[in-house]
Amino acid sequence: MAALTVADIMERDAPSVTPETGAEDVVARFKAEDVPALPVVNDGGRLVGIITERDLVIADEEGDLHIPHYIELFGGLIFLESMRNFERRLRKAAATTAADLMTTEPVTIAPDASVREAARIIAERDHNRLPVVAHGRYLGIVARADVLAALSREE
Questions:
Q1: Helix, strand, coil distribution of the chain in percent, nearest 5
Q2: pTM tops 0.85
Q3: Distance, CA of 80 to CA of 131 (rounded, Å)
Q4: Neighbour count for residue 97 (Cβ, 10 Å)
Q5: What is the tens place of the pLDDT at every residue in 35-89?
Protein backbone atom coordinates (compact mmCIF):
# COMPACT_ATOMS: atom_id res chain seq x y z
CA MET A 1 0.00 0.00 0.00
CA ALA A 2 1.37 3.44 -0.98
CA ALA A 3 1.93 5.98 1.76
CA LEU A 4 -1.02 8.29 2.23
CA THR A 5 -0.72 12.00 1.47
CA VAL A 6 -2.48 14.94 3.06
CA ALA A 7 -4.74 15.15 -0.02
CA ASP A 8 -5.97 11.61 0.74
CA ILE A 9 -7.21 12.50 4.22
CA MET A 10 -7.96 16.24 4.22
CA GLU A 11 -11.45 17.67 4.64
CA ARG A 12 -12.15 19.47 1.37
CA ASP A 13 -15.41 21.18 2.33
CA ALA A 14 -14.24 22.51 5.70
CA PRO A 15 -15.93 25.74 6.77
CA SER A 16 -14.07 29.01 6.28
CA VAL A 17 -14.77 32.73 6.54
CA THR A 18 -13.73 35.80 4.57
CA PRO A 19 -11.70 38.68 6.00
CA GLU A 20 -14.86 40.82 5.91
CA THR A 21 -16.98 38.37 7.94
CA GLY A 22 -18.21 40.17 11.06
CA ALA A 23 -16.76 39.14 14.43
CA GLU A 24 -20.21 38.13 15.73
CA ASP A 25 -20.72 35.95 12.66
CA VAL A 26 -17.32 34.34 13.24
CA VAL A 27 -18.31 33.42 16.79
CA ALA A 28 -21.66 32.09 15.52
CA ARG A 29 -19.84 29.95 12.90
CA PHE A 30 -17.60 28.45 15.59
CA LYS A 31 -20.68 27.48 17.56
CA ALA A 32 -22.72 26.24 14.56
CA GLU A 33 -19.88 24.28 12.92
CA ASP A 34 -18.38 23.04 16.22
CA VAL A 35 -14.81 23.45 14.90
CA PRO A 36 -11.66 24.57 16.74
CA ALA A 37 -10.42 26.71 13.81
CA LEU A 38 -11.74 28.64 10.83
CA PRO A 39 -9.45 29.44 7.89
CA VAL A 40 -9.81 32.97 6.51
CA VAL A 41 -9.97 32.91 2.72
CA ASN A 42 -10.16 35.95 0.44
CA ASP A 43 -12.37 36.29 -2.65
CA GLY A 44 -9.58 34.89 -4.82
CA GLY A 45 -9.50 31.64 -2.80
CA ARG A 46 -6.20 32.45 -1.12
CA LEU A 47 -5.60 31.64 2.55
CA VAL A 48 -4.88 34.93 4.35
CA GLY A 49 -5.14 33.79 7.96
CA ILE A 50 -6.74 31.48 10.48
CA ILE A 51 -8.90 32.05 13.53
CA THR A 52 -8.65 29.55 16.36
CA GLU A 53 -10.65 29.36 19.56
CA ARG A 54 -7.55 30.81 21.23
CA ASP A 55 -7.91 33.97 19.10
CA LEU A 56 -11.37 34.56 20.55
CA VAL A 57 -10.09 34.81 24.12
CA ILE A 58 -7.89 37.56 25.50
CA ALA A 59 -5.69 35.75 27.97
CA ASP A 60 -3.93 37.83 30.56
CA GLU A 61 -2.67 37.26 34.07
CA GLU A 62 -5.36 39.59 35.47
CA GLY A 63 -8.02 38.37 33.04
CA ASP A 64 -8.28 41.68 31.23
CA LEU A 65 -6.34 43.86 28.85
CA HIS A 66 -3.73 46.06 30.51
CA ILE A 67 -1.28 48.65 29.27
CA PRO A 68 2.25 47.23 29.36
CA HIS A 69 4.35 48.19 32.37
CA TYR A 70 6.50 51.25 31.83
CA ILE A 71 8.83 53.66 33.55
CA GLU A 72 9.10 57.41 33.09
CA LEU A 73 12.57 58.61 32.28
CA PHE A 74 13.58 62.14 31.31
CA GLY A 75 10.00 63.09 30.50
CA GLY A 76 9.34 60.06 28.27
CA LEU A 77 7.89 56.60 28.66
CA ILE A 78 9.94 53.43 28.34
CA PHE A 79 7.78 50.34 28.01
CA LEU A 80 9.11 47.27 29.79
CA GLU A 81 7.05 44.89 27.68
CA SER A 82 6.44 44.59 23.96
CA MET A 83 3.92 47.08 22.64
CA ARG A 84 3.40 44.77 19.67
CA ASN A 85 1.72 42.14 21.88
CA PHE A 86 -0.46 44.81 23.51
CA GLU A 87 -1.46 46.24 20.13
CA ARG A 88 -2.33 42.77 18.82
CA ARG A 89 -4.45 41.98 21.89
CA LEU A 90 -6.13 45.39 21.74
CA ARG A 91 -6.97 44.88 18.04
CA LYS A 92 -8.52 41.50 18.85
CA ALA A 93 -10.44 42.93 21.81
CA ALA A 94 -11.98 45.60 19.56
CA ALA A 95 -12.39 43.25 16.60
CA THR A 96 -15.24 43.88 14.21
CA THR A 97 -14.19 41.53 11.40
CA ALA A 98 -12.42 38.22 10.85
CA ALA A 99 -9.40 40.20 9.60
CA ASP A 100 -9.13 41.78 13.06
CA LEU A 101 -9.30 38.39 14.81
CA MET A 102 -7.16 36.23 12.56
CA THR A 103 -3.59 35.14 12.92
CA THR A 104 -1.81 35.99 9.69
CA GLU A 105 0.67 33.67 8.00
CA PRO A 106 -0.63 30.44 9.55
CA VAL A 107 1.33 27.23 9.43
CA THR A 108 0.14 25.29 6.36
CA ILE A 109 0.86 22.06 4.55
CA ALA A 110 0.85 21.06 0.88
CA PRO A 111 -1.62 18.45 -0.40
CA ASP A 112 1.20 16.20 -1.64
CA ALA A 113 2.96 16.15 1.74
CA SER A 114 3.06 12.82 3.52
CA VAL A 115 0.86 12.05 6.49
CA ARG A 116 4.07 11.61 8.51
CA GLU A 117 5.12 15.17 7.60
CA ALA A 118 1.70 16.45 8.73
CA ALA A 119 2.11 14.56 12.00
CA ARG A 120 5.56 16.08 12.54
CA ILE A 121 4.32 19.66 11.97
CA ILE A 122 1.24 19.14 14.15
CA ALA A 123 3.39 17.76 16.97
CA GLU A 124 6.16 20.38 16.70
CA ARG A 125 3.77 23.35 16.48
CA ASP A 126 1.16 21.91 18.88
CA HIS A 127 -1.65 22.52 16.37
CA ASN A 128 -4.87 20.55 16.02
CA ARG A 129 -5.51 21.48 12.39
CA LEU A 130 -3.43 22.54 9.41
CA PRO A 131 -4.84 24.40 6.40
CA VAL A 132 -3.95 22.63 3.16
CA VAL A 133 -2.62 25.07 0.58
CA ALA A 134 -1.26 24.76 -2.96
CA HIS A 135 0.35 27.86 -4.49
CA GLY A 136 -1.37 30.03 -1.87
CA ARG A 137 -4.84 28.70 -2.65
CA TYR A 138 -6.84 27.14 0.17
CA LEU A 139 -7.89 23.54 -0.58
CA GLY A 140 -9.08 22.21 2.78
CA ILE A 141 -7.93 21.32 6.25
CA VAL A 142 -6.34 18.30 7.88
CA ALA A 143 -7.06 17.52 11.53
CA ARG A 144 -4.82 15.86 14.10
CA ALA A 145 -7.37 13.05 14.52
CA ASP A 146 -7.34 12.31 10.76
CA VAL A 147 -3.54 12.22 10.74
CA LEU A 148 -3.44 9.83 13.70
CA ALA A 149 -6.06 7.57 12.10
CA ALA A 150 -4.09 7.50 8.83
CA LEU A 151 -0.84 6.70 10.61
CA SER A 152 -2.46 3.77 12.42
CA ARG A 153 -3.80 2.44 9.08
CA GLU A 154 -0.32 2.67 7.52
CA GLU A 155 1.23 0.49 10.24
A1: 35, 25, 35
A2: no
A3: 36
A4: 17
A5: 889 999 999 999 999 999 888 765 554 445 455 555 666 766 665 566 666 666 6
